[in-house]
Specification:
Length: about 475
């Protein structure tokens, strides 16, 4: 990764300051929204292969204006305090943008998770959770972690189990973490949620004719070309759903071992199956391969939509002038540095910002947390009732018209909603609404050309409302 010219947290602060000017809010209030409220750094020893490894870990709660705070836990060698602070801040703004009533937080453990066995990872995860419990940095009403880069449902299950061992008598204990396996108090649709949200966000952006015209594009997704960097959870679901439900043509994919490019299109399912079998995307039939050293060049190829779905700072001052994509859809957190964005905006690009576009994950985490607090699966109460009512309605219409539906048609129309249907529709509604709010702010401020500043303004205004309601600020 190319070193950015400024720190990640500084880049987020710069974005904040740029938007704050338009809000006309009092300086003290802006300062309170901007700072990190609590930063916890811890070192602990873990026995690894007969030796002892000292692990560096963090949990940052950026904003306590709402409780609990919320955000993922990252396992990566690049973890440092600046990064976790930046990611925690983004979580606060993200939650505000999609009306998820949480403050922002983030955790980080400085390890390469692919270097360790599951046994060691479990030890690290359980010890980290114990540290959080001891300092009151986790709990369904305090701070609720979730998956992020290098973690998944397995780690979340370990976290919940450790929490329960230590706090067994808490009735809402399952709500101490989200992104859990469905069998262990998780929710259907959480795994795909971030990628699905990215898709809904892109689709919404492409539905505005006049915005697309400005970019020299037709509205709608069918046949648009896409390049994705990163085939992790977010990148892979974004790719699959964009191809299957949007009719988008994926022409390039970048990963750690290199990148593949084929202007005729790459079937994302076939590529993922190939990578699973060969442990690399090198040699994927029909595609040009870019070696590991050149893999970041894939960001510079011509396409309609570029989706950075890996780590931060990948679009920076060194390559911003080389980006040819018309739309940059930020599935990762912080992929574009502040300085790079200035260059891209000057060149008329549309950037769909991270804090809006990847908010699908935390949105469905919110649904999971609600499910945990209610101790009931979504749809359990109303599914049969809805089904029966639709069937009665169909029967009445059939009697009135003398015509009848075929069985498959009747089953389809009368179907009561399952949990997955409700989660997807709640997510879709959230992503559409949030985009429209942001775009409206952008349009209202003629001088604003960028969605990110509008998104920040929206977040700042919503958070400031909460602080003003506390009666501390004017
Ligand atoms: N790690 C994800 C994010 O960056 C999800 C956070 C959550 O679900 O709390 O948004």
């Amino acid at each position: 990764m190319t070193q950015p010219k400024q720190s990640f947290f500084q880049s987020v602060q710069n974005y904040f300051d740029k938007a704050a000017q338009y809000t006309k809010l009092e300086q003290g209030l802006l300062e309170q929204i901007k700072v990190c409220n609590a930063v916890y750094q811890v070192h602990f020893p873990v026995k690894v292969n007969g030796g002892v490894k000292v692990i560096e870990a963090y949990r940052v709660q950026h904003s306590h204006h709402r409780a609990p705070t919320k955000g993922g836990i990252r396992y990566s060698n690049h973890v440092n305090q600046d990064e976790v602070m930046a990611l925690a801040a983004l979580m606060s703004y993200k939650c505000a943008i999609v009306d998820v009533p949480f403050g922002g937080a983030k955790g980080g453990v400085k390890i390469n998770p692919w270097e360790y066995s599951p046994e060691v990872l479990e030890k690290i995860t359980r010890r980290y959770t114990t540290e959080l419990v001891r300092r009151n940095f986790i709990g369904p009403a305090i701070d609720v972690p979730a998956p992020d880069y290098g973690t998944g449902e397995r780690e979340m299950a370990w976290i919940m189990d450790t929490y329960r061992v230590l706090k067994g008598d808490e009735i809402d204990a399952a709500g101490c973490v989200t992104g859990k396996p469905v069998s262990q108090n998780g929710i259907r649709g959480r795994t795909e949620a971030t990628g699905r949200g990215v898709f809904y966000g892109i689709r919404e952006a492409f539905s505005f004719k006049e915005d697309m015209k400005r970019l020299g594009l037709e509205s709608g997704l069918e046949g648009k070309t896409m390049i994705i960097q990163g085939l992790g959870n977010v990148g892979s679901y974004t790719g699959m759903i964009s191809q299957d439900e949007g009719g988008i043509k994926i022409i390039g994919v970048g990963e750690v071992e290199g990148a593949v490019y084929n202007p005729k299109g790459i079937d994302i399912h076939a590529l993922m199956a190939y990578r699973k079998e060969h442990k690399t995307i090198e040699g994927f039939p029909g595609a040009q391969f870019l070696k590991k050293e050149d893999r970041e060049k894939i960001l510079e190829f011509e396409c309609d939509i570029l989706v950075p779905a890996a780590l931060e700072n990948v679009i920076n001052s060194e390559n911003a002038h080389l980006i040819k994509a018309k739309v940059i859809a930020e599935a990762a957190n912080g992929p574009t540095t502040f300085l790079a964005e200035q260059e891209l905006l000057k060149r008329g690009k549309l950037i769909i910002p991270d804090m809006y576009l990847n908010a699908g994950g935390v949105t469905v985490s919110y649904f999971e947390w609600l499910k945990n607090l209610s101790h009931m699966r979504f749809g359990r109460m109303e599914k049969r009732f809805d089904q029966q009512r639709s069937e009665d309605l169909i029967k009445t219409v059939e009697q009135m018209t003398g015509k009848s539906l075929r069985k498959e048609e009747r089953d389809q129309v009368a179907r009561g909603a399952e949990e997955i249907d409700l989660v997807r529709s709640g997510l879709e509604e959230t992503m559409i609404n949030a985009y429209q709010q942001i775009r409206e702010i952008m349009v209202q401020h003629n001088e604003l050309q960028d969605l990110r500043t509008a998104a920040f303004m929206n977040a700042i205004l919503k958070i400031s409302n909460d602080y003003q309601n506390m009666g501390i600020f004017p």
